[in-house]
Structures are given as C-alpha cells and as structure tokens.
UniProtKB/TrEMBL annotation:
<feature type="compositionally biased region" description="Polar residues">
    <location>
        <begin position="1"/>
        <end position="10"/>
    </location>
</feature>
<feature type="region of interest" description="Disordered">
    <location>
        <begin position="1"/>
        <end position="35"/>
    </location>
</feature>
<dbReference type="GO" id="GO:0008033">
    <property type="term" value="P:tRNA processing"/>
</dbReference>
<dbReference type="InterPro" id="IPR020119">
    <property type="entry name" value="PsdUridine_synth_TruD_CS"/>
</dbReference>
<protein>
    <submittedName>
        <fullName>Pseudouridine synthase</fullName>
    </submittedName>
</protein>
<dbReference type="GO" id="GO:0009982">
    <property type="term" value="F:pseudouridine synthase activity"/>
</dbReference>
<comment type="similarity">
    <text>Belongs to the pseudouridine synthase TruD family.</text>
</comment>
<feature type="region of interest" description="Disordered">
    <location>
        <begin position="629"/>
        <end position="652"/>
    </location>
</feature>
<feature type="domain" description="TRUD">
    <location>
        <begin position="323"/>
        <end position="553"/>
    </location>
</feature>
<dbReference type="InterPro" id="IPR011760">
    <property type="entry name" value="PsdUridine_synth_TruD_insert"/>
</dbReference>
<keyword id="KW-0819">tRNA processing</keyword>
<dbReference type="GO" id="GO:0003723">
    <property type="term" value="F:RNA binding"/>
</dbReference>
<dbReference type="Pfam" id="PF01142">
    <property type="entry name" value="TruD"/>
</dbReference>
<dbReference type="InterPro" id="IPR001656">
    <property type="entry name" value="PsdUridine_synth_TruD"/>
</dbReference>
<dbReference type="GO" id="GO:0005634">
    <property type="term" value="C:nucleus"/>
</dbReference>
<keyword id="KW-0413">Isomerase</keyword>
<dbReference type="InterPro" id="IPR020103">
    <property type="entry name" value="PsdUridine_synth_cat_dom_sf"/>
</dbReference>
Amino acid sequence: MESEGSTMQQAGAEAMPPSKRTKVDETPEAGPGMSGLAREVAAGIIAYIREDAPGFSAIIKHRGHDFLVNEIDQSGNVVRLTTLEPPQMTTDSEAAQKAGDEAPVDIYAELAQLTNATVAENVRSMVESEGREPTQVMTEEIDDKTDRVKVHQFIRKHLGQDVTTDTEGKAIRMRSLCNVKAKDIRGGIRGRNRGDKLPVSWGDMPGQFCQFVLYKEGKDTMDAIDYICRTTRLNSRVFAYAGTKDRQAVTVQHVTAQRVIAERLTSINRPSAPIRVGNFTYVKDRLRLGDLTGNRFVIVLRDVKGCPESEVVASLESLREHGFINYYGTQRFGTGIVSTQEVGAKMLKSDWSGAVDLLLMPGEPAGQEASRHARARQHWAEHRNPAAAVKMFPHGCVAERAMLNFFGRKDSTNDKYGAIMAIPSNMRKLYVHGYQSYIWNRAATERIRRHGLDPVPGDLVAVRSQPDEDASPSDESGDRIRKVELVTAENVQQYQSKDIVLPLPGYDVRYPENDIGDFIAELMHKDGLDPKKMKKNDDFISLPGGYRTLFSMPQDLKWELLRYDDPAAPLALTDLDRLEEKEEIHSNQGAHLAIRLEMTLAAGQYATMALRELMHQDTSPAFQITLSREHQPPVNSQKNSHSEDALASADN
C-alpha cells in the first residue's frame, strides 16, 4: 500500500488538532545534571501533538541501509550520486581558440626570454619527466623584483598545473608538483599524481573549486574526509562541506576541494571502499557550514506491530497533516557518561573546575564501573597523573585527552580554564549549545502542557526572511529567524501554531512575555544562570541565542507499506544501488510488516523526533537494540549498528 504526500501548502500547515491542554507525563525535576545516556524524559522530551494516538512498535535502523540521508542544497535540489566519471574538460587548444588565439603560446621560448635558454630547457625536461629528471630548476639571481614577479606570474599562468615556484634569495626555484606536499604548495594544484593531467590552467577553469558528491557508509563526514586525505595524500584544509553527516547512516552530500582535479579523487572509487565520489563540477566558491536547506530521508521501519494497519496509516496521515514537536533529539546531548548540557551549564557559569571534574572525575551509574572510560576516571581521581591517565582514556574521548595533555605539558593541574580551552573549539561549543537545547526542550514541553497547541498572548511568533533577502546560513536553532513579534489579545487570531517560536537563551533574543518566559528564567536560575545576562567575557560562552519553531512540518511526506520474511531483506535503495541498477522491492507478501517512509526536514530538525511522534515509542538506541535482537536477523546479515548517533538527525 502506498500513499504519497505533496509538499505542505500554507492551508495544510495551518490545520492542527483542536486546542487542548495536552496531557504529558511528569516533567523531570532535575536540572541539567544527568548521568549515563541522555534519555528523552531527562532531556525534556515528553509531549506529543496527538496524545490520544495508539502508537505502534517498530524497529528503527535494523540494517545500516534502513536510514538514508541526502543533503538538500541551497537551490532546493536533493544531492544525488548519479555518476562516478570525471567531467570532460577543455583542452589547451580549445581554450586558446575561445580566447581568440590563432596558435598556442610557445611557452618555453618565452620562458627563455624571461630567464635563459638553459633554464627553459630544464623546466621542459622536468615537466615532461613529471619531476623525475630534474626534480627542480634554479634560475640565476634576478636583481630586479619586478622581473622576478614576471617569472612567477608566467609559470603560474602557463605551467601552474605542473610547476610551483618560490624565491630563494634573488633566485627562483621551480619544482614539479609531483614532488611537492600539498601543504607546501602556494597557488598550484594541490596533490598532483604522476600521470594526472590538467588540460587547462586554473585561470581557464569555470572555478578553482572541484565540487563533488560524497557518498559514504559507516563513517561520519570528518572520518570520510580523513579517508580521502590518506588515500590521495591531500591536506584536509583543501576540503569544505555544508554540514556533518552521521556515521551510522548512508549519507550523500556535496563537498568542495580547492584546486584539486577530479581525476585525482576518482582513485578513491574502489569496490571495497566505504565511500564513493562523483558528479564532479568546477565552481567559483567553496562550501561553507550551513550552505544547505535540509535533508531528504528514506527510513525503513521494520517489524511494525501493535495496532491494525488502518491505525498505522492514520498515524502517518496525522504526521503529514500536523507535523511534530520540534524537539532537539537525545543525540544532541551526547553519548557519553556525562551529558553535554551538564558540562555546558558549568562552562556558562565560568565554573571551570566544575566542568573539568564532570569530564574527568568518577560518577558513573550502576553497571558502568567496569568500562574502560570508568577505569580511566577512577585512575585520574586516585593518582592525578596526566601522562598515565591519557593512555587509559579511549581515543574517542577527545575532550578528556585534550585536557590531560594540557595538564601534562604544564606539569600542573591548577589551570582549569586553560584545560577547558585546550578542548577543540567546536567541541566546546557543543557543550554550551547543548545547554541551550536542553532549556528549549523543557520550555517546549511546559508551553504545550500549560497552553496546548495554539498561540496565546505573550507567545513569540516568527517574522521570516523574505525570499529576496540575503538570509545568512542557519544558526544553531536550524531556523532562519531573525525577527519575532509578540502575540497579544488583539492579534492572536492572525497566527497559527506553525508560527510559534521559543528562544534559545542568549543576550540578543526576546523571551516570551507570559508564564513561559518566567518558567525559562526559573529553570536557569536553578542552574545559577540568568537568561538576561548571557553576555560573557569569553567568546565561546557569550551566546547571542536564536529562535526555533515549536512545531515542524515534514515536507513531501510519502510512504509505502511492505511485507517481507527475511529480517535482513533490503527494503530501500541507496544511490549506489541505483547506479548498479538494482530494483526496488514492492511486496505485499510476507510475515512481517515494514514502512518505507520518505520525508524532507529542514536543517536542524531531527528525524527521530518525527518518528517518535509517529510511533509513540521509545526511540533510544538501547530500546531499539532490544527490538532488533528480538527480530532475530540471520547470522550472516549485515551487522546492526544502533548507537546514539545512529539515529541520525538533520542537524546540519
């Protein structure tokens, strides 16, 4: 059975269930302090839009190929891998004809005039031998700086794909790019291999950035880039992307590489490789973080049971019509023993010692005492030996190892602020943003508990950027909301549920002017923080804040109900499967029921929260692992890969 939903129109988006005081479970009393994995209730994830839905049981991500994510670019196009071939490039003669030249430039004759005949002939030999003989060429000393500049510019223009230059004293050294490491190249092609040829100079190219589609399995984006760098001997600084994609999903996204030829990257496409690259083109600008509008998901929910098929369809139709509460998913709050928001609260108070202790000192819940992480913490508490402790912490404990290495270099454990600053910048931000997200989730639950789903006086509503405005990339909320208005008794009828926003605490936001604003203040005061005093001396904890819509509407939602017998049967096609011309399964025969669900979510929205609203079921990895084991996949089937970040988000 298949149902296809079109992109939500304004009228459809406005239709919400009748306003009511939504029934929710008990709100957690604790502040941000949590031990163990962040759970839904502890993260403030409690309410539902449709509280009376019966719900059903299903397995999320039984196979790795059950969760597919394709990035959506700024033009609204879904990024797809459709070819692995490099682009056809313009030849030297074609480029010359386009420029109106009657004949190619005699490069070496002109170089001889700028230097001398011996230098020109040696450069020719170096280029033709791909740097084997000679490996470099030195000019005589050139006293006039203007003349030296002319040589540099000439080489860059005519031989920039093969040769790089630098100045030694008053002489110029010319080296083959085949013999130069990427990090040492200035202005040339990064990472030339012998045999790689660029038919035209970069000045003749459509752009100096090679944009390509990255398809990956079992790696997050940073791991995939590292794999490319190790395979091609390129520097990671060459690459840029719009957002990081999850490790435990099959994902497709755009990447740009500065002055790298496509042929160099195609060497990655081996049958056993965990990634593929393709759809190459040359563009003028590199990608920046936030240069995307969302993600397209294809999700397979297996072993659906617990209610009749008619109720399953009703739940799907409700999700399409009403959407879901735009909670930050549990993966936002970390997968470690200590939740990110707990550490973030300490950092926002400038309690550096408290933050260090949370990350390094014991405090595991029951059952965790024997873990390697726990043993490392206990060793640190007993011995305070940075060199010994850093060897005990797993390599994945980036923050802990960074602080311990800092203590080791200083030969002291007194500088707690310095230890925190030794943590990579992006990771430090994750902690404080985690606290913002925690406050937002708690406020969202309380807003729905007290006032239901419709706007009420004192709420904030979004004033969205117009299409012709130069909107900046999405902020931490994932929304492009720069202005808000206050709902009053006089204008409340002008707004719908889709307009309501809640603030992420910061110094440049407005708070609701009703009891929800008071609730946010009280909640933060319990943690020793004031929502109106978020301007700090340290940049990374001085947060401007932002706004996030209370409800989210999946776009272009469609689904198909499938029947199957083999728990490991492939029920969704990846881009690579489609390249190999595999056929998609459409089956109504089998002992088990599955849903193949497709939807588009904006950047910053969590697919797991949409699934939670759909199923009214625990989406946590631990619970999903239990269901997956009960489904009894064959021994030789693909290994299950449930983890906190396996339940992917569109948080990019």
